[in-house]
Every structure is written in structure tokens, then in C-alpha cells.
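ok trying this again, last paste got cut off
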Amino acid sequence: MPLKSSIIPKRRLPLEPIVNTNRKKERLKLTPEQIFNIYLECNAPEAPVKTILERYGLRPWDLIAIRKKVKAAALDALAHPGKRGRKRHAIPVEQYHQVSKELDETKDALAAVGHELSLLKKRTS
């Protein structure tokens, strides 16, 4: 039985690729260090700010927000200077007593070894 050409569906052309019609560009996930480098690059004299921001998918108001954060962080760091040296850590009482006991045992052992050493020196001399 011959098939009619009208019954057999014709193969359709592949669909055109879907193009993102949304005007918003995909944003890159930037690290704080990268954001600070963008800030420094944009603050350089005669820097092409618009092209720098476009390179990273940012807008001018993003730069304004970055500048505000940098200013706030700088003011906070200048207003509350940290103490130098190690930060103090809270140690549980049990751990303190255990370490203190180990220290006492070590001191006693060292004193015993020192005493034995002095006795040996006396015997040899």
C-alpha cells in the first residue's frame, strides 16, 4: 500500500536558538578582593569607569554602593583600633585544671631527672 505524501509529516527545521531577551546581563560572583580591586581601578585618575564596570557586569550605582561600604569600613577601622597581639580565648575550667596538672607532673619529673643527674655527677667525680 503506497503512502501518500500528504500523510507523512514533513521534517521540521530545527528551532532557532533561544536568545535571552532580558536586558539584564548575568552578574559575575565577585570576591571581596576583586571588588576592592575594582574600587581602586575606578578611583585611578582619568580611569574609564564605565568600561571598567561593564567588564565586570556592574552598574554605576554598584560602584556607589562599593564606595559607601569602603568608606564605612575605613571609618570603623579608624574609630576602633584593635589591640596588638593575640586575642584572648576563653578556656574551660576542666581543660585549665588538666593542663595545670600535666604541668605540675612535668615539673616534678624534670626535678627528679635533674636530681638523678646531680647524683650521677657526684659518683663519677
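PB: full thing came through this time. The helical segments are 32-42, 49-55, 60-79, 93-124.
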